[in-house]
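We treat protein structure as text, and this decision shapes the records that our systems exchange. Because each token names a local backbone shape, the row as a whole describes the fold. An entry from our holdings is shown next, in its original layout:
>
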Amino acid sequence: MTIWPIRSAPTEREGAALRRREETCLPTSAAEPVNSKKLCRDGALGALSFMLGLTLTGASTSCAEPLRPAILYNLVKFDASFNEAAYRGIERFKTETGTQYREFEVKSDVEREAVLRRFASRGEDPIIAIGFPFASSVEKVAADFPKSRFVIIDAVVQKPNVQSVVFKEQEGGFLVGLMAAMASKTGTIGMVGGMDLPIIRRIACGYERGAKATRPEIAVLEAYAGDTPSAFTDPARGAELARSEIGQGADVVLQAAGQTGIGVLRAAADAKVLGIGSDSNQNGLYPGHVLTSLLKRTDNAVYLALRDAASSEWKPGTRLLGVAEGGIDLAIDDADKPLVTDEMRQAIDKAKKAIVAGKLVVPDWAKARSCPP
């Protein structure tokens, strides 16, 4: 029913762990015959359980199929940002468990749905889609494959077999806003977003609130690269917007724009001012000119989904990750260490503790569709 597109560029891998194996499996009771066709996660464990079952009457054990995960990236996997962090998450799971996986870089809306259907029809599970552009396709395909498990990162799809992972971006925005205000010498800071979305507005609002919490008089400039997904893949446009803000006096500029943001950081370094990275640790891209990076831990989101699936704890619904849940953090390392003062560290630690304790609640732009004063 599904036509698999023929492409020369997809990055797709299949390892031995993805092949089905016929193993002996322990029956659910001592009286039941062994079903030699059932798939076990570990043949040796199944055999051991069988021997134990002969001596422990009534012992009950279930035998699960091995995970066959697949991950889909929107446009580019190695983007030094959002997608690449997700890749590190599935690689971490692979390293710890030996589980191989399939992957695909999706280039179009048509391909998005076709690849999801192909993975589901082949029994890949769970299927992880990275980014909001997958939302409509995941909704359609999940409905047609109700026994398959899907995970979507950065969007919400309300289906009984879909786990949606979203982030409290405003908390990260607040933290980097604190640092930006403390680092600024001109009293003006900037922010360049990719596509104008609630996700990015959350960051921008948190950024402004954090900056004004430490310097109420500070000016915060804000610009967006566009209103389509391509706004996240245009470094030249990012550099143009950053130069405009720098020309208006901004000496610290946050990028929240995916690949477009690489241009923002480059423009900041060229102008001898400070940039702030996002999604992944981008401190090392322009050492001495990147104050910090807002980490949106898509790596943890992917890893946790796979860990839960492997331990039979996976659940559909919405998983919300912020500072307290390990979904949002800042990157401070050797590349930016000389830029980060003790005063900044103390302010960040204090704010983090307040967020985790519930004493500091950063407003969510998406709830009011505006940034409270």
Notes: DSSP finds eleven helices and twelve strands in the chain. The longest strand covers residues 188-195. The chain has three domains: 21-55, 68-167+300-321, 169-295+341-368.
